[in-house]
Amino acid sequence: MKQELQVSGMKCGSCQLLVEEALAELQGVTNADVSFRNGCVTVEYEPDTVSLATIKEVIEQQGFTVQV
Prior knowledge:
Layout: E1 2-8, H1 13-24, E2 29-35, E3 40-45, H2 52-61, E4 65-67
Antiparallel strand pairs: 1-3, 1-4, 2-3
């Protein structure tokens, strides 16, 4: 499944890397394309393994706000 999320608070490449690394560690996430410039995260995941709510929570734990 593929989902695009609007993420506010990412200001630089380090913010982008923080989100990419956090999502890469999450079991069930197969790909995450993060753009701090666009404030956008496109995530591909296996819904049987990980929920969208968990993905949002992981991003928010890094200090950012997720809007769908």
